[in-house]
Amino acid sequence: MKQVLSLKNAFKSYGKTQVLKDINLELNKGEVISLLGDNGAGKSTLIKCLSGLDTFDKADLFVNEKKVDLKKYDIQSARALGFETVYQESSVGLEQEIYRNIFLGREITNVFGFINTKKEQEISMDLLKNFLGLRGVGISPNSNVSSLSGGERQGLAIARAIYFDSKIVILDEPTTALAIKEVSKVLSFIKTLQKLKKSCILITHNISHAYEVSNRFIILEKGEIKADIKKDDISLLDLQNKLINIQKEYL
Predict the structure, then answer these.
(1) Which pTM was predicted?
(2) Are 134 and 184 in contact (CB under 8 A)?
(3) Are the beta carbons of 214 and 34 closer than 8 angstroms?
(4) pLDDT digits (tens, 9 = 90+) for 96-106
(5) How much is the pLDDT for 90?
(6) Is 118 exposed, middle or buried (0-12, 13-18, 19+ CB in 10 A)?
(7) pLDDT in tens, 217-251
(8) Contact residues for 31 (Cβ-Cβ < 8 A; gap 6+)
């Protein structure tokens, strides 16, 4: 299986507090891994550094087996390498039109440099119908994102990542505060990423959601990786017990 990401010997501190301690993690093509752990385990800091929002103090990062210059690494360069991060709340602008959300910062332009709104709307409509499965009479790329349900908003952000051919999609708590039906939608979108051979890093507090869609589970505690387990090697119940026992060690 082709390796798309390799992170070695990663450290991060804020002041005197060491948040990440010698993190080593790998991600393969078409693989979904879940980062599990309690609040303060280091999950959010890890994805912020991977997505270019923050910087590691020290690390070796390889994407498609090429070493990344972390001194020049930021959100734009992460996106150019194929990263797309979907945050729980801030991935879509609720009061903006759907098509503007999809193409914000990556607009389609004509030969004169003007934004090709018609083309953006056509592509957006295709994503609404064929990815999100929205086929009602009132569905329009000109509707505000606020007209979509919570699960559909997450799906829109994932659809955007797929359209722009992102190779590594990072999902930060995508099912939090969603109804059961909406959760099912989001999990189905993650399964679509797998079918399309996209790689995914999922951050979640919900072990059952992680278990349904993930190939591997990485448990963090106090900034360290305490376990890296393949789904084939553990049941859901044993995974839950493993997580509880690791957390008890640090109480």
Answers:
(1) 0.91
(2) no
(3) yes
(4) 899 998 998 89
(5) 53
(6) exposed
(7) 999 999 999 999 999 999 999 999 999 999 888 76
(8) 1, 199, 200, 215, 216
